[in-house]
Amino acid sequence: MDESGRELEELRREVVESRSLTIKTNNLVNALAADLKSMAKRQQQRERGVWLNNATIYVVSVAVLLVVLKIAWDARVEAVTSSANTRLARLEGVEAELEALKSRSTGRGESSKTAGELYELVRNNKQKELLEKWPEAQKANLTKTERAIFEDAVSRARSDLSLVAYQEGLDHVRTGRWHEARQALEESLRLDSNAAHSPQAQYNLALALKSLGDQRKAIPILMKLSEASADREVMDDALFLLAEAQIEIKAWNDAKSTLRSFIRRFPKSPYINDVRMKSAEINLQH
Measuring CA to CA, which residue among 226, 260, 257, 263 is closest to residue 241? Predict the structure, then answer.
C-alpha cells in the first residue's frame, strides 16, 4: 500500500506538473503570438511609411522635373522669339533702307528736273518766273552746289527787280501818280529791303503815303529814316517831311520837337530857312 500510494502520489505530482507545464506553454505560445502580431503590425506600418516616402519622393521628383522642363522650354521659346525679333528688325531695317534708297532715287530725279527748270529760267533771264518758282524749288533735294548757285541767282533777281520797281516808283512820283508810286515802291522794298536804293525808296514811299493823305503810315517810316539811315543824305529830307506830316495832322507838339531837332542836327541843310519859318509860325500860333 505504501508503495502504491507513493506511486499514485508520484503520478498525481507529475500530472500537476504536466498541467502547469501545459499552462506555461500555452501562455508562452500566446505571448509569442502576441509578439508576432505586434511585430507584423509594426512591419506593416514601417512598410506603409516607406511607401509613402517613396511616393512623396517620386511626386516631388516629377514636380521638380516638370519645373525644370518648363524653365528650359520658356528659355528656349524666349531665345527663339528674341532671334526672330532680331531677324524681323533687321528685315525691317533693310526694307526701310531700300525704301529710303528708292525715295532718294525718285527725289533726286525730281530734283534734277527742278534744277533743270531753274537753270532754264536763269539762262533765259526770266527773273520773275525764277522768284515765283524758287519757294517751291527750295523743298527739292538740291545739291549744295546747285542750291548755292540758285540762291545767288535769286538774290540777283531780287536786287534787279527791286531796282526796276524803284525806278518805276520814281517815275510815278515825278508825274504825281501817287497810288502807282506807292505800289511800285512797296514792291521794291518787298523784293530787297537792304539794297542801296532802299532808303530813297522808303523816303519816296512815305512821300506817296503823305500825298495820299495817309500820314499816319508815313510818319513811322520817316521817323526811322531820320534817326538812322544807311544813306545820310536822306536823313534831313526825311526829318523835314516828317515835320510836314505832323503839321498836316495837327500834331503841334510833335512838329515843334521835330523842327527843333532839325535845326540842331542839320544847320547847313537847304531846308533850314523853311524849317525856321515853320517853327516860328507854329510857336506863334500854337
Answer: 226
